[in-house]
Amino acid sequence: MKRGLVLLAILSEVLLVSCRKSDSWTDFTSNEGNFAVRFPKSPTDSPQWEENGLVQRGVQVVVDNVVYMVDYTWTNAQLSKDPEADFNNFKNDFFEGAGTCTTISAGPPSPVLQGYVGRHYVFHCANDARLDVTHSVNLYLGRSRFYSVSVLWASSQPEPSETTKFLSSFHLLNPAR
Fold first, then answer.
1. Mean pLDDT of the chain
2. What is the pTM of this model?
3. Which of 87, 96, 97, 132 makes an SS bond possible with 155, Cβ 3.0 to 4.6 Å?
């Protein structure tokens, strides 16, 4: 009996080690953006965009026609005293930039970021190229930082199995910032 338990423990450890070795995902850290996340491979930076006191950057990866993306925006401007109203403005701007969209579901994000208003959305959008795209996105709004952590894929395809792995790997480096 003990020998069987020992063999089971060894087999479990071998499986865990082999699973860890096959996980080729890349840890990405942005000190400027104050976050870390795991991507399926090394991401590329998008150009910095600046307008009306807002600065926006992004990083993304495309793997098998699936886009894994983090966009982050920061401002020195004072937000209003109503975080929910600010979040709704941020969310509306985000959806407006995505095209003609239909929300499929809405709920709390995973992970929840302390001190941030956040939501998770899944929605379908038809873009200018008439491609039907599904987005699974966590949106976060803090005192001066905004984050969108997204996975996008063709709506004709099933949801990528790695969606939750990517979205849930996002975390802040310094939550008080």
1. 82
2. 0.81
3. 132
